[in-house]
Each structure stands twice: as structure tokens, then as C-alpha cells.
Specification:
- The chain is mainly α.
- It has helices at 20-51, 60-67, 71-83, 110-114, 117-127, 129-138, 155-159, 166-173, 192-202, 212-225, 229-238, 252-265, 285-294, 297-304, 312-323, 329-342, 349-361, 367-377, 382-401, 411-423, and strands at residues 9-14, 58-59, 87-94, 97-104.
- The chain has a 4-stranded mixed sheet.
- Strand 3 and strand 4 (97-104) form a beta hairpin.
- The protein is globular, with a radius of gyration of 26 Å.
Amino acid sequence: MVILSTSDMFDIKVSSLLADYDRETITNLYQPLIGFTALAVYFTFWSEAKNQKITSMSSHEQLLVRMKMATGVFIEARKVLEAVGLVKTRLEKMNGLSIYHYELFAPKTPSKFFNDTLLYGLLIQNLGENDANRLKRVYETSGSNEQGEDISSSFNDVFHPDYEDAAFLKATSGVSNTLGRKKSKIDTEFSYEKFFATLADISQIGEKSITKQEMKEVERIATLYGVSEEITAEKVANNFIVSNPKGSRIDFKQLDKDLQNEVNYGVRSLKKNKNKNIAIGEEGLAAKVKLFESKNPKEVLSILQNGTKPAAADLNIVQSLASDYKLTNGVINVIIDFVLQMNNNVLSKYSVEKIASSISRENIETAIDAMQYLNENYTGSQKKRASTIKSISKKANKAEKKEEQSDILSDEDMEKLLEEFKDR
């Protein structure tokens, strides 16, 4: 545990362009999440960064006296700022002296804030859905004016650049350290640091050998199955093809199978489920959304069946939703919960996939939007909805039994059933 002393020194570095409109964004969108104390610390850091052009380093005592703030209150406010990606803190020990290096980041733009499941979900949790949507409408645009013919000049129409000119060669070879709209990444459960540390221990695969796009897919699959970083690294090493070009060296199809087998048959270090006994049906909407967005489908399945291990068949259904329909974990969790509630805790593949295809066509990416979609499109009494889902599942089960005779229920029939469901 790091204990802050008022005699400890600090400096502040601004790692992003900060403009006046950022003050409005932080006040309107971030303040409901972080509170006014953390807001005051952020703005003070912003001002202090300008002062440090004259004095490069200050003591925490000077800062806290000016803010009339206790040390403990300051530390809690700083932690909140770190959690939402506005501040990053590094500690340096030098000759018995502790120096804190604070790095200040720009807030997300309103567009990116509302597209961020974690931040927008927290806003809904803190303000309620109505007030959160009211804030969202403040930043909505009316769209571009498409009237008339577009007669705007292009860049080449005006400048006629000669790309072989020495000036352009210099421009492409130069490395720029100028400020941009840099934002700190909000840490999630999957640790890249642990993953690459394990990978370095068991193989000669370095960070530069794996592209960002590949890492996103690795993280997605690992999070989907709730597998630890160490086991994921081992499986990636086993499925890494050095001879392939960069960007296509990981055999994701086999990696997916290996991680699923680890969940089905492995007894090693899987991510532990800390919420085994949560009864989701008894939680409020905000808590339910938070759970669905923060847990992977394997964990949610386990929670919904009282902490027991999900069946391989259920995990196969979950995987198809992620790979075939490109749905997020939060949306998958909503579909799972909905179908289980309506179908006596039976996860019917046909029911799940038909609902998933509808949600996929709507480009829904968050749990709250998925809930709203199901509420709007699958309305009616609980009894009617349950009856319809059971009807779909019953016919689907019959179709599965007749699969060998190729008498399977057609997609058209399933669509009709779901349309009936919507009309009730």
C-alpha cells in the first residue's frame, strides 16, 4: 500500500490537447460519475500544469492547503479520476524522496462517451435513464444538410500537389511528438501486461509480433470464456504460426476451440466468479445492466444457474452469438437472460439465434439498448411471451430430432413464429 505524505513532491504533465469545451464535457458528463471533489482536483491539476512552466515541481502540502482538502479526500478523488481515464499516476523513489508524476488526459468527446458502455452505463446508473438520455439529446446533431448538389472543391482541385517533391518525403519520414486528443485507456479485467509477461516466459513471441487487431480478438475470446491471461497466453503460443504474415499469425479458430475446451475440461486457473449467489431477477435495472456489461457470458450463465458450471452445449450457443452475429458480451448476456426467463431455464439454440439475428440487424451494442429493444418488440404479458418462446423452442426441439431426415424447421417458419411473438 502506498501512503501519501504531504511532503511528497509532484509534477503534472498534460498529455493531450485540452480546450474550453472539455470543461463543459467534464462538468456535464463526467461529474455525475466522479463527483464535484474529483472535478475540482482535475481542474486544479489543469491549472497547476500551467504554473509548473515556472516551477517544475511542488509539494502536496502546498496543493492541499490551496484546495483546503484533507489528504484522504484527495487520494480518493485522484483514484476516481484514474478509474475513468482522466489521470494516470506514476510514483518515483529518489534518494528517499517520493515524487508523484501525474499525467492529465482529455475527456472523451460526447460522441465517444455515449458510445462507451462503461461510462454511459455509469451515467444511467447515477442519474437514471431519463436524465441520462436528456443529457444525450443535448449533444445530438441534426445531421448534415443534404439539400442541393454538392459542388465543393476537393483538395487536389485547389493545391495540385506533387507527391514526389522533397517536402512530402520529409513529411512522411518525420516523427511527430506534438499533442493530440490522447485519452487514457480505462482498465478492464483482461490484463495485457500479464498476458505478454506470460507469453515472454513460455515463448519467444514479443508484443510487436501481435497486432492491435489480433489482441482485441484475443481479449474478446478470453473474456467470453472467462479464461485467465496466463492460460490465454499459453494457448496463443500454441496457435501462433510464425511463417504467416504479421496480422494473420494466430489461428483464431483453433484458439477458440482450445479455450472452450479449457472451460469444459480444464481444472486450471480460470477467472473466478465472485458473484455466484447473485439473483439477477431481484436486482434493479441499473445493477442488472452493470452486471451484464461487466461479466462475460460464461460467468452470467454460471450466476443464472446458481454457480454451477455451464454445459458445453450452452457455451457453443454463446460462442455462435459472438462469432456469427458479432454481438458484444453485454448484448449476449441480455439475450441469455431473456430466453432463460421465458423458457423455464432452457437455453434453446433456435430461440437465441432468431432473437440474436433481429438484434444484430439493429446494430445494437449495449445491454441497455438490447433490453429496450426486447421490451419494445416483444411486448405483452409475461404469460404470452413465455408461451410464445416455449412454442418456438418446442418446434425447434422437434426439428432437431428430425435433423437426420433433413426435416428441420426452416428459417422462414422461425421468422413467422417470432413475428407472431411481436404481434402479441
